[in-house]
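Input record (one chain):
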Amino acid sequence: MQCPLCNWQNPASYTHCFSCQAPLAVAGGQAAASAPDKPPQTQTNLQLEDVFPGTMARLGATLIDGVTMVAIPMALVLAWVFARPAFDSAPATTYPVALALGILGLFIPALMDALGQGSAGKRLLGQRVVTRSGERPGLVRSVLRHFLKYSLTLGLTLAVPFLLHRLLTALFGERGLHSSMTGTFVVSRRASDTAIQKAVALVRGPGWVLKGLVMLAGTAAFSFATMVAVVLWNQGDEPANPRRETVRQLDGAARTVLRLVENHYQSTGAFPTSAATVGLGRPGQLPAGFQAMAIDPANGVVRLTIADSTGDMALAGKHLVYTPVLRTRKQQTDIHKWQCGSDDIARSDRSFSCRHEATGIAR
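The corresponding structure, as predicted from the sequence alone:
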């Protein structure tokens, strides 16, 4: 017998609908003698409230899972870094294994949802993830849900906090994109299987058109991210160059000098006139690896001369040049960053952060 309110198919012997508890017509066309204690709509609302946790409860579980996703990968990576020497593992394997452990740690909540009783946040707040049949989601479904939640749903919501949240809520309801797309539900652990099946039967999922658009957008975003990662990886995949490593170390040592110049500019509003102005006028006061410093008081360009104590005689007497980039905020101008370059060191021998054109050089 079909329910006139929710269209649920019930056995002929039922006097009330299994889904919404509305009275059903009895044989002979007469209505059931007794009416329900509460209106069907009120009972449906109470049923949903008993099964599905509120927004704040689900947000609390997400925050706890977020802490877990930070702590566990860090612990796994540190454990591998410290344990690697004991296994006589080659240093070249440190980064791939550490990356694999980090990725595994990020998906720990998904594994707990699929294989256990729920992630840490959901267990602490009395929640779990189920499918429409009331069962735990499989491993693939759980991992996909986790990926969509922390990449698309959370990432897009943080990017445009108000408008995008309203849009996602309008399209997918309070379940969110990640649950709607994977056919899963966050339910209370106290709810019975029967109550869960009744409640999820009342929730409609997204149509195929909406699912197709989301999959298309996700594929485009993933392809773009992959291309960016490949480009960045290929840029870093250069042959070993000891001279470039020396320049990188010198660049790090020069930051002490640049901080002194920044402090002088912040306190006086002008660039120092010489190295002595910032307390670096006497021999031995410059950072290791440098033998002289010049600064242009007009534009703040700092020119550091490399000493012959670096171990690479080809760099002795050559220069690193730093050009300040100014920024004005709240009517106050300060040094935002430094552009590192050189006019006499080959570009291929400089680190990636030190490949700006050296203009306005102080001599």
